[in-house]
DNA sequence: TATTGTTATACTCTATAACTATA
DNA sequence: TATAGTTATAGAGTATAACAATA
């Protein structure tokens, strides 16, 4: 593929400095920059509620339903199973999640949210959602709809394995 | 435990797991997932060419024009000035970049690409661009145009300060 | 023999402080 | 006094190996 592809992209100069002749910035660089801005904007909201990013990721996953065991939970959120241990210890000590002996396999523990955990997640998520609305404020409704429809197709989420609570 | 257990909630199953009632996934989570997929896809392309991600970031910035000094270079790519040292040492040892005494300020060094550095960057960038084309293959032309127009607006790049070569 | 939860260890990445030479 | 480049050190984050209990 050559420079002629600029026809279905953006061939214009967006004022981001001297053009190096390649037409547009790397997709990875652009996505990374947006991601970093969102992470930076989420950081204070999480800190206010005493959560780290990984803890929030765990709560978000568990909000979909109980995880059958810690290993699948770790795989689904792409976190090391070894680091998940202390993280769950902390969340459980704070009464946000519970580990229960697995029904079939005595080695494993199902992990699920407590009422307090579900409430905290809902509160933080609402704050994050409000921040995101501001983040997307510059887009008109059609653009916003297009973006929200596109993103899941570019990186589909793995179907979580849900256990009985 | 049958898969049909997931149907008991909303009845909707779009492949993204049980709905937790909040409508859509966090924007940050979606962007982070896309970014990770792109980074993972770039990794082998960079490794084949003996570059780390940060080294490629430096080359990409310098492809826009020489940096007036290392400090502004570090700030523009959001990298620690202390870690930039060894990184530039390496790139210079390999003949990809050159540090030249600053014209006005004798403390500073301009940083610019050598011909070899420019060639390597162009080669790697072409490989990455080809990968990106595959990555966006699932989108129709209108969606692709919309996405590429949106991204720079969601996280504008800082205008780089360009020095004379 | 393989897997789940766990601990311990080693390694990488990142952040901070401090030094030098110039300004 | 402040800044550009550099070095050294401490800390956080991450990966790997190994172990006990169970399958």
From TrEMBL, chains A, B:
<feature type="domain" description="HTH marR-type">
    <location>
        <begin position="24"/>
        <end position="156"/>
    </location>
</feature>
<feature type="compositionally biased region" description="Basic and acidic residues">
    <location>
        <begin position="7"/>
        <end position="24"/>
    </location>
</feature>
<dbReference type="InterPro" id="IPR039422">
    <property type="entry name" value="MarR/SlyA-like"/>
</dbReference>
<dbReference type="InterPro" id="IPR036388">
    <property type="entry name" value="WH-like_DNA-bd_sf"/>
</dbReference>
<dbReference type="GO" id="GO:0003677">
    <property type="term" value="F:DNA binding"/>
</dbReference>
<dbReference type="InterPro" id="IPR000835">
    <property type="entry name" value="HTH_MarR-typ"/>
</dbReference>
<protein>
    <submittedName>
        <fullName>DNA-binding transcriptional regulator, MarR family</fullName>
    </submittedName>
</protein>
<dbReference type="InterPro" id="IPR036390">
    <property type="entry name" value="WH_DNA-bd_sf"/>
</dbReference>
<feature type="region of interest" description="Disordered">
    <location>
        <begin position="1"/>
        <end position="24"/>
    </location>
</feature>
<keyword id="KW-0238">DNA-binding</keyword>
<dbReference type="GO" id="GO:0003700">
    <property type="term" value="F:DNA-binding transcription factor activity"/>
</dbReference>
<dbReference type="Pfam" id="PF12802">
    <property type="entry name" value="MarR_2"/>
</dbReference>
<dbReference type="GO" id="GO:0006950">
    <property type="term" value="P:response to stress"/>
</dbReference>
């Amino acid at each position: 593929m050559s420079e002629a592809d600029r026809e279905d992209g953006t061939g214009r100069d967006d004022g981001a400095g001297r053009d190096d002749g390649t037409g547009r910035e790397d997709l990875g660089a652009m996505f990374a920059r947006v991601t970093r801005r969102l992470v930076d904007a989420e950081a204070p909201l999480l800190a206010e509620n005493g959560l780290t990013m990984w803890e929030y990721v765990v709560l978000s996953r568990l909000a979909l339903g109980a995880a059958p065991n810690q290993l699948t939970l770790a795989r689904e959120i792409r976190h090391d199973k070894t680091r998940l241990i202390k993280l769950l210890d902390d969340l459980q000590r704070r009464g946000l999640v519970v580990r229960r002996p697995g029904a079939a396999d005595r080695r494993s523990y199902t992990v699920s949210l407590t009422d307090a955990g579900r409430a905290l997640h809902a509160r933080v998520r609402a704050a994050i959602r409000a921040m995101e609305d501001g983040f997307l404020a510059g887009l008109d409704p059609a653009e916003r709809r297009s973006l929200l429809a596109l993103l899941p197709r570019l990186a589909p989420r793995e179907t979580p394995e849900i256990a009985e609570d």
